[in-house]
Amino acid sequence: MTKTNREVVDWMHKLVHEGAEMKLDSREVRPGDIFCAIPGTKSDGRAFIRVAAARGAAGVIYEADGTPQGEHYPVASLAVSHLASRLGEIAALFYGDASAGMTGVAVTGTNGKTTSTFWLGQLLTKLGAPAAVIGTVGVFFNGKKIPAPHLTTPDAVTLESLYARLAHEGAKAFAVEASSVGLEQGRLAGSHFRVGIFTNLSRDHLDYHHTMEAYADAKEILFRWPGLGAAVLNAEDPLSARFAATAKAHGIPVWTTGREGKGEALREASGAAHALDAFDCRSTGRGMAFTLRFEGETREVQLPAVGLFNVENALEVIAAMLALGFSLDDVVRGVAALEPPPGRMQPVYSEGMPLGVVDFCHTPDALQKALESLAPGVHARGGKLWTVFGCGGDRDPGKRPIMGAIAAKLSDHVIVTSDNPRSEDPESIVREVAAGAACAENVRIVTDRREAIHEAILEAAPEDLVLVAGKGHESEQILKDGPHHFLDAEVVREALNERRTREL
């Protein structure tokens, strides 16, 4: 007879003492832990049960389907049918279902997830709900980074362990990036969310999803999430109309956001509960300003971040905060003090030198938006816009020429370089990227990323801006022989120092 999730957890609890963990990787098992053995895309965890036992596992739960009848292991073990799809809820029960006691917000979309979660974390904390941030850049709480796997959305076991730790340390809320892969693979199963946010959808992860329709289907999972209290949807993306219908069909209130009345238009068309719109969006010396309109009220908003795409991110963050019950005036005041996450439009200054900007934009849409947001300000002060970027190996090759064409069209100077080539030949990748520029005179190839950044900084005029795109916060460059330390912001600073030394 198949055991319920509660029965599985009761069985585990009888074997362990306080402080025991659930582990998916046998190499991480400590004496007294529970090892969870499930088939994966690269290996089958059941092949490592004896390794986990030798490391002192108190017990093992393993996928029953496909395991030979009568298999015996040298450790207390329990076969569980459909374990992979049930693991999130089992882990939640094992760790005390900590996310149920916190205010959780999940953000999905191709671009904007990291910025939105960081801003949510700042606002929630400022307004009395100490919040953790979980996503691409890592896990942050109370001003410190917490060790965690390097995944946009960690696995369900890791997430539930994190929630328990964060709650113990005083977290009352969390904002998590819900990647399409994470949603489809059930990594968020067992998590409780008050609000789900959709930022946008553009070409990415097609090496995994294969089609844009499948990619959209994965994002849509969030908007039928059990217990979700509100869906916040960006009306600038046409997919939001579909997600609004999905949310409404599941009894989830919908908030729409947009620029110049698009939020209100989608609200009327979809029957959404609320709409926020930004009017008169304009650049300022510190970022962007706009007039916020919400249910007959208006507020002037100062946003310390550049680009219309960041206005869209800010609108959704504001809507989420309102959906959680915070006051409009408190939220607007908080927005004026927001700070960007590492590697997201991160400026690297040096007096009298070109301005370096490091950004994670690694999709065609994100690169286009970044360049369109930076170009007007640079050209207004008589400068040129330089772009240094490449595309990752072992990932969707179809976007390479597309991004090359975008960079050539929207930049004054382009240096195509290596990103994370992984197992591919870096020279082949840069040629594919440059091919999209159709031999444009403003494009050159410098395959070595450090050399490319130095070349741009050394050649640029003081009034120019050099965008170093694609890797953002990443502290390693992944080559065929493995990862090597490489942080774009450090290399930009290094190049600025070299230029200053040369000019002395």
From TrEMBL:
Binding site for meso-2,6-diaminopimelate: 395, 419-422, 470, 474
Mur ligase N-terminal catalytic domain residues: 22-95
Localization per Swiss-Prot or TrEMBL: Cytoplasm
Every Mur ligase C-terminal domain range: 343-472
GO terms classed as biological process: cell division; cell wall organization; peptidoglycan biosynthetic process; regulation of cell shape
Superkingdom of the organism of origin: Bacteria
Residue ranges constituting the Mur ligase central domain according to the UniProt record: 107-320
HAMAP family: MurE
Protein's name according to its UniProt entry: UDP-N-acetylmuramoyl-L-alanyl-D-glutamate--2,6-diaminopimelate ligase
Species in which this protein is naturally found: Sutterella seckii
